[in-house]
User: Fold this.
Amino acid sequence: PTMFTPTVALDATELPAVSVEEIGREHSPDPDAELMTEVSRGSEIAFTVLVRRHQNPLLNFFTRMGALSDGEDLVQETFVRLFRYRDRYRPTARFTALLYHLARNVWADRGRKDARFERLTSGLRAESAVSSAPDFTNPGERLDVDAALQKLSPKLREVIVLNVYQRLRYQEIADVLGIPLGTVKSRINLAVAALKEILHDH
Assistant:
């Protein structure tokens, strides 16, 4: 399916309200789980619907996590892994918890590849005694929430991305990250406080 450019703008004033869990979603039906069940039974149409429905939110997720040029490749890899998982799928949790668990694994794998590449290129630069470190400073650039996100630690950034932008409930985030519910809540509180401080300082 054709990928679309994600919308990544967010007004800083939205943060406190958006980060609160929505009680009404707690027991709502999950049509995506029903579609995934159809996928597990061999329905290509159901899988196509899931791809079309979630490709843009996934692209937003990877963009906000820091993917600048390979977001679409990461989205595609996530759906590949989802399709491979179809025979083992059981609707024991909301579909988005599974999807973003897979997406987080894809992101982690990408990070490991980047780290190996960085070690290799650093070694080559050291051998050739060539300093090619880019200058990322740009004092005139407007600092917005998306830029502030990149200043957070990976652990704090991912809970904000999953909760605020991907609309996952706290328990779903706990399932995705494999951490206690209380840890999710504390990380979100720390992340929101850190974002407010960053935005206030600038």
Remarks:
- The CA atoms of residues 30 and 94 lie 6 Å apart.
- The first helix runs from residue 15 to 18.
- Confidence is low (pLDDT under 50) at residues 1-24, 116-143.
